[in-house]
Amino acid sequence: MRSNNIIDVHAPIAEAFAKGRPVVALESTIITHGMPWPRNNEMAGDVEALIRKEGAVPATIAVIDGRLKIGLSDQEREKLAQAKDPMKLSRADLAFAIAEGKSGGTTVAATMIAARMAGIAVFATGGIGGVHKGAETSFDISADLDELARTPVIVVSAGPKAILDTEKTLEVLETRGVPVIAYGTDTMPAFWSRNSPYPAPLRLDTAEAIARFQATRTALGIDGGMLIANPVPAEEEIAADVMAGHIATAQRDADEKGISGKNVTPFLLARILELTDGASLVTNIALVKNNARLAARIATALAAE
Amino acid sequence: MRSNNIIDVHAPIAEAFAKGRPVVALESTIITHGMPWPRNNEMAGDVEALIRKEGAVPATIAVIDGRLKIGLSDQEREKLAQAKDPMKLSRADLAFAIAEGKSGGTTVAATMIAARMAGIAVFATGGIGGVHKGAETSFDISADLDELARTPVIVVSAGPKAILDTEKTLEVLETRGVPVIAYGTDTMPAFWSRNSPYPAPLRLDTAEAIARFQATRTALGIDGGMLIANPVPAEEEIAADVMAGHIATAQRDADEKGISGKNVTPFLLARILELTDGASLVTNIALVKNNARLAARIATALAAE
Amino acid sequence: MRSNNIIDVHAPIAEAFAKGRPVVALESTIITHGMPWPRNNEMAGDVEALIRKEGAVPATIAVIDGRLKIGLSDQEREKLAQAKDPMKLSRADLAFAIAEGKSGGTTVAATMIAARMAGIAVFATGGIGGVHKGAETSFDISADLDELARTPVIVVSAGPKAILDTEKTLEVLETRGVPVIAYGTDTMPAFWSRNSPYPAPLRLDTAEAIARFQATRTALGIDGGMLIANPVPAEEEIAADVMAGHIATAQRDADEKGISGKNVTPFLLARILELTDGASLVTNIALVKNNARLAARIATALAAE
Ligand SMILES: [Mn+2]
Ligand SMILES: [Mn+2]
Ligand SMILES: [Mn+2]
Q: One of B69, B102, B161, B289 is an active-site residue; which one?
């Protein structure tokens, strides 16, 4: 077996591990499937720079030509950002892409797996996957929730993607024993919006308190990750009532056009981009950066625990 | 990290471990959320005494001022029984309460986690959480079921709480691979009643057989807990057809008043208490004692395996 | 405890382990619940012979008189094939049968557990259990899916049994992070038929590629099994549109007769046997043999990794 010949740890990350410095993992489907070239590459570079500015080391996770990358060089990031038909990798197919020599972006689930494997405790993303609207008959539920239930990584998000069924997503996370902590607020954030109709299961107000909570879970031997729901900054949010209208319109359009299965999410996101005249993407980038900043602070606090 | 500074093992329990004597864990939401002071404290003290009388050592699990308690002194039990706004702790927030220095009662899920951590193999409770009525659209399913699927503790109950959807609860337990053993009967008990319309998945008639089953699972390396469903003594049951009427009335009242989410269970239990003129609580206490007795015998049999 | 006194490894399998030769596990509910004596015994013997012919060693898994059998002698197979009221054993009751000294056939879930315990990486069956039709209200989902999510065994099947809800079964497997690989085709096979309306999540074309995929998962420390969906040979299939009619008729008959719960699957299979004038059983045997052949090749490829 070529077991120890399939993972590449980028030099600055290996150095950070050696020196006990904080590291933050980043997913890469936002690069491969989230926005077009060259905006995807610029955004990813900006987010990495922001983590460095906070004193932590960014580790973008991806699969390139069958090798699991823990951190990318600028050249690798550019290559990934221009990849033709990259895979969108989750728990089920992460190893498939590696075994078959393919390239792909890693979802929340796959990024958590890679982060844990590399010893990275904190991971920043935009929003997690969850229970899709209509899941009571479609059974369409993201593998991200299962991964949160079993893999001990702190996932810093702006909540589940707002096109999902937030209420059912919270129910599944409760059933699976996953802590959901709103950062500095009593209300679940809703990705593009600071508020949703749902109270947050738990609330913490500092990166240090989040680090202490996770350290206590580790000390008790409690498995699994936790979800931080970090509201987008007020100046960059799109108000919840405005978004509700756009989401409903996009959903109706999808139904009318008979869009189904894996095509629903990309359709909805593209339609919402049109309906908001591009503002949804601006807010998306803002919330990713906001999450990266918080993740860097949590990683720093954890390194000091 | 303050890892080994967050758990307090009460002296009689540490002594029991040292001498290889049987220990039975007890949950504490029945103290913090199940009945009012001072009845909660009296009931908890009576149940502990009953376990001692059977030759085992009771270990009530709780979190007090941020410390995980494996067994309580009389003073600690009184303090918990009078706590202001205690948390109701499950897998997701057990470590939260500890990290934040709070107090709370432990649900079935959290008690299982603490019991396993402390090396206690048997745990007595009233009824477990499960699939709520209407879960096909609400997705409201207790974290107790997931915990049974992964944590190797024998949970002695009188079945799922009868206000739940028993049939769907049995389906989920089957899907998750959790053994459900009715004690001395072919029918699933229904908490306040000895019978339900559902056949029991498995049946065993002695504490020794239950201990042997669990020891065999351990020997085979099969993960997870098992649920013992122990019917309340005949002289203290409320017949299933009588309870069915009360449960339906309480459910209808909840629907009419628009009670939803986490408020449903406490509302139903309070309404059933009124509808039965207090008999539901008498039966509840009787079944908890009955379960404690069986748990002590199973723990004794396990110690002899 | 009698821990190391409950498993019997049949001599040829112990020898294969010692020599590093490929071993293929086989389930036994097909013997105890799948067809009548003596056809069940003949079929099982034929499948074992076929695996030997491919250069691997067959290990039929079962429980006989409370002992877990890893491989059966001819006498043991005959005994099991004629057992009176054998149990149908899944994760929840495998250890129960052993502790209580009973006999039973092992389902996909229980066979996976035993295979992993014995160190067997590949297992051939007919079709796996999954999400039953109507599960959105019945919550009836096979424990096989949960087992695939946690136990690292390659299960070679002809897809989920076609009387199940294939689409929802694929959704649950995706949620739980289980790879589903169609062998040599882009379409999910449907047990008796080579095709279903659903695209396969993943495709691989050689036993070597499957072995490499699983070896990569192991190298990465990714838990759980994978499902190979191997289409029945063209000359032995029953076309999907023909089967769709029979399945619908059988389902309607079950509904009319009020067949429910655990009785549905045996009723449907018996009715389909009638409706196809026995052809469904011929195809079933053909697909089991086809899966056994592929499983032997995968085991051989894995042994060479
Ligand atoms: Mn999906
Ligand atoms: Mn709930
Ligand atoms: Mn079932």
A: B161
